[in-house]
Each structure stands twice: as structure tokens, then as C-alpha cells.
Design brief:
There is one protein chain. This protein is an alpha/beta fold and 338 residues long. It contains 14 helices and eleven strands. The protein folds into two domains: 240 residues, TIM Barrel, CATH 3.20.20; 71 residues, Non-ribosomal Peptide Synthetase Peptidyl Carrier Protein, Chain A (Orthogonal Bundle), CATH 1.10.1200. The strands form two sheets. It has an eight-stranded parallel beta barrel, surrounded by six helices. Strand 9, helix 8 and strand 10 form a beta-alpha-beta unit. Helix 1 packs antiparallel against helix 11, helix 7 runs parallel beside helix 8 and helix 11 packs antiparallel against helix 12. The longest helix is centred in the last third of the chain and has 19 residues.
Length: 338
């Protein structure tokens, strides 16, 4: 699959998730078979006005290529300037958020608010398209009602402005993440434009991705929450695409993902900040496994990389043996106690 001049290994995309899809998580998703990773949402104002924390979100690594950076904002001039900064930083694709329904974002006229005003949206897209050479994509919702008419209208405007692909999350702005997504909206957008359409919403299992493509005709599938602690969903989707079976991921794969995520987070954030983050995030990877709740309890005060690695190793030993055990004496506190 191609998005403009960028060729993807396979038609799977990791959804941009605020506070989640930083560099370490994107590296994990790519290593697990994801065709395209997208940054967490980046403020165009923050980039243009030189916010250190915002600029840091543009950090990338050759191993995650191709990657897209998603920006949000409402001022055409600011968005165009931010887009140029993203291109200069080395992103392969620029994505514009037309779907965030958080009140703070909506009040600024950004995110899903852009779907309420087609002509200002056209002006914004045209300004950005003139400023950059890399492929341009947008991520939209159904709109503000369930008809999907706004999604189709914005999609047509986007194609007219030179947008190279459109991701569609078929929930309304009012829904947020509640209720079911309406895949028929994805199909309607696909029929309305000739550029690639990426479907998003309620892909929980690999089989859901295949069903979405068959039902809507979309060119690729974007996975969000289901991939947060289970990035191997991408390799499983790819296996289904090839007609192969998709056995459950082995414990070794989960352990390897945890260790990589920890190490990459330490390199990206520094040990102290990374370990604070790992107190909640390492628990993502043991969902549904024996001793998972004990492991999650054990990491709530982890403060060093070595301590986290020790807890991971103890969890591995317990999971492999199938028997409960306590951590040995040493630098790690007792864990997994009832």
C-alpha cells in the first residue's frame, strides 16, 4: 500500500493515542509488524512558539520508519508553519487531527470542530498542502451526527486539496469512544474518494481487521486501544492476510515486548521518569495471564531499570512454572503476596 510517495510494508496502522504513542511505543509497534506508526497528537501552536516539551515529541528513530506526525490546530498559517517544522524534522507523513472530541481541543476550534466548518477546513488544508512536499493525511470522525454526511463532505474537500489518504473513525464527536463504531461510514467515504481510506474503530481481534476490510473496502486498518499492550496484533493481522493461522502469542513474546519497552523508555525519558511511567504501563502486557494482578501490584513503586527487569524475570519464572512464588531476598521488595 502507498500513501503518496511512501510505501508501507503492509496495510496496518497504529492509531495516534495521546500520551501513549511516543517514540518507545512506536518502536515496539513497528517491531511487532505495524506498517505505519503515528505520533501522539502534537500542538501546532506549541511547535511554532517553541515549547520544549512539544518539540521533543518530534523525536524519531530510523528503526520506526515510515512514521507520521499528527498535529492539531485551527489557524491555517500556524498549521502550515508547524507542518514545515514536522517535515524538516524528518517525518515521512504529516497527519492533521480532524477527530479529537476533547472539550479543550474543541474550544480552540481544533480536532472534530474542524468538521463543522467545511470552508475553513478547506482553507487550512490548502495552506498546509502548499507548504510541504511529504504526503498529507487527515484523521476524521463520522462528524457531529450519525449520518456520516460530514465525513463524506470533509473527505471530498480533503481530496480536492491534495490530501493523500484519510483515516476514518466512525463514531460521532458526541460519542467519544462510547457505543459501537458504524463501519458503514468508512464504506461511504471509500466510495466518495479515490485516495486510500484507512478504517478505524472496534478492531479488537485480528479477525476484526479482516472483517472491516471486507465490509468497507478500506485500504488499510488502524488499530488503537487493542494494540496498547498487545502490539503483536499487527503481526497476527498480517498472518491472517496471508492465509496463515494465528496462534496465541507465546509468553516469551510478551516478556520481550516488556523488556524492549522498558529499555527504550529509559533511553528516551531517562531512568527516573521512565520507571514512574512503567509502574502502570508494564502491567498492560500481562493482561489475562496467571499472576498478572500480582505483577501489577509489584511494579507500583518500581524506581530503577534493574528493579523492573528483576520483577519481569520473576514474573516470567512464575508464569513458566505455573506455581506461585515469592521474590527472592535481595534488592527487590517482596511481591506477588496475596
Amino acid at each position: 500500500m502507498n500513501i503518496g510517495s511512501v510505501s508501507l510494508d503492509n496495510p496496518t496502522v497504529m492509531a495516534p493515542l495521546a500520551g501513549i504513542t511516543n517514540l518507545p511505543h512506536r518502536l515496539l509497534a513497528r517491531s511487532a509488524g505495524c506498517g505505519l506508526v503515528v505520533s501522539e497528537m502534537v500542538s501546532a501552536n506549541g511547535l511554532v512558539y517553541g515549547s520544549h516539551n512539544t518539540l521533543r515529541l518530534l523525536a524519531s528513530d530510523p528503526e520506526e520508519k515510515p512514521m507520521a506526525v499528527q498535529i492539531f490546530g485551527s489557524d491555517p498559517g500556524v498549521m502550515a508553519e508547524a507542518a514545515a517544522m514536522v517535515e524538516a524534522a524528518g517525518a515521512d507523513i504529516l497527519d492533521i487531527n480532524f477527530g479529537c472530541a476533547v472539550k479543550k481541543i474543541l474550544k480552540s476550534g481544533s480536532g472534530a470542530a474542524l468538521m463543522r466548518a467545511p470552508e475553513p477546513a478547506r482553507t487550512l488544508l490548502a495552506a498546509v498542502r502548499r507548504r510541504i512536499r511529504i504526503p498529507l493525511t487527515i484523521k476524521i470522525r463520522s462528524g457531529w451526527d450519525s449520518s456520516g454526511a460530514q465525513a463524506v463532505e470533509i473527505a471530498r474537500i480533503a481530496e480536492d486539496c491534495g490530501v493523500d489518504a484519510i483515516a476514518v473513525h466512525p463514531r460521532t464527536a458526541v460519542q467519544g469512544f462510547r457505543g459501537r463504531s458504524d463501519w458503514t461510514v468508512i464504506g461511504a467515504v471509500k466510495k466518495a474518494v479515490s485516495i486510500p481510506v484507512i478504517g478505524n474503530g472496534d478492531v479488537v481481534e485480528p479477525e476484526d481487521a479482516i472483517r472491516m476490510r471486507n465490509a468497507t473496502g478500506c485500504d488499510a486498518v488502524m488499530v488503537g486501544r487493542a494494540a496498547i499492550g498487545a502490539p503483536w496484533i499487527f503481526s497476527r493481522i498480517n498472518a491472517l492476510d496471508r492465509g496463515e493461522s494465528v496462534p496465541a502469542e507465546p509468553l516469551s513474546m510478551r516478556i520481550a515486548a516488556m523488556i524492549r519497552y522498558l529499555n527504550d523508555s529509559v533511553a528516551y525519558l531517562g531512568e527516573a521518569a521512565a520507571c514512574r511511567m512503567m509502574r502502570s504501563r508494564l502491567g498492560w502486557f500481562v493482561k489475562g495471564l496467571p499472576h498478572g494482578s500480582r505483577f501489577r501490584a509489584s511494579i507500583t513503586h518500581v524506581s530503577t531499570r534493574d528493579e523492573a527487569l528483576g520483577l519481569i524475570d520473576t514474573f516470567r519464572e512464575m508464569a513458566e512454572s505455573g506455581e506461585p512464588a515469592a521474590l527472592s531476598d535481595g534488592p527487590f521488595r517482596p511481591a506477588f503476596n496475596e
